[in-house]
Amino acid sequence: MNFAERFQQLDAWLAQHQQLWRAKPFTQGQCAWESQWPELSAWLRARTLEQAEQVHNHPHLLEAPAPFLELAQASLAFSDVPDWASLSDMDFPEPLYRHIPGRKWEQITRFAQVSRSRLEHPPRHWIDWCAGKGHLGRLLAWQTGQPLLCLERNPKLNRDGAALSQPHHLVALHQDADVLNPSSWHCLTPKHSLVALHACGQLHMEALRQTAAHSCAQVAVAPCCYNRIEGDSYAPLSELAKKAQLQLSKDDLGLPMQESMTAGQRTRRLRDRSMAWRLAFDLWQRTGNGRDSYLPTPSRPESAMAKGIAPFCRELAAWHHLTLPEPASWDELEQRGWLRLAEVRNLELLRGLFRRPLEIWLLLDRALFMQEAGYRVELGLFCPSALTPRNLMLIAEKNPTQSVTSL
Do the beta carbons of residue 382 and residue 369 sit within 8 Å? Predict the structure, then answer.
């Protein structure tokens, strides 16, 4: 299946089922789809919070009533891409990974290994896009002996990066540059190979645009935070995506990011309590305010929860300039908030089936754009999802024949 065919099929599927993945159980007392599939709705609402957490990152494993299984199978099919992930068997000098957390270093080494192994032609000059201290670019330059240019807008990170590069005797330049500013693009030439590990929305999109505009030899990106874009709606890159059925808002782009990362027990407990109390406040304000609609609430510091649920809810009411009658029992209201959180998390499992397919839709748009610019393009996984949920990678290499590459 080539990228264009896959994109069109996925676009039609996502558009057909958008009522499901655009539903917001946290803010909606009842989702529109629940009247159509009451058995699935009742089954999900009867489950516990612990049961929801067990399958949050793998909702396709859930044996739920129809149409859940059918949607789960389609989700897996649309999410299937080649798995390039492999363990690196190289030994690295300790200064290369000094002060880098182990999980981050493993992401860097796997990304670097895939970047090098999937290219048909040896890179001549690396560019680390949004480099930070240049850990990724430094590793690639050390492995290949090729020059390195790190583009980073934070001067301190550049100074620190230059100090880290110096002992390895690399030809490395750490340059103060905002990659979203056209003044930073003059350095790009056909000899360059761009790499960007977890560059947020607009940043990795600009990397692809400027790679194509300056005919750079190669680019490898692992996108992140698709919703960090300019404007309130998504502007597709490829000609095919510009004609797509699906029209995405910035809010829609946040769906792929709603996969839980590994967090400590205390962090999860605080997160859950905050959400349960927000839902308790929502129940309170809907009843006392006489309006069955959600009120957005500001983020609250951890200290706000130390006072207890009653002050927490009263402060939110005051922020909204609401005068509400006190509930009969704050303990009962809190319990209802926890029950509501369990319902929300379980109902969101249906949305979860669309997280990865929507991300693939976005990656296919990027792949098609690079193909249209004359690049050979591949999509795949550079590491296991347990290491990072953002484990998808796009690699594009200038292709004089402009042939179409299939998944």
Answer: no
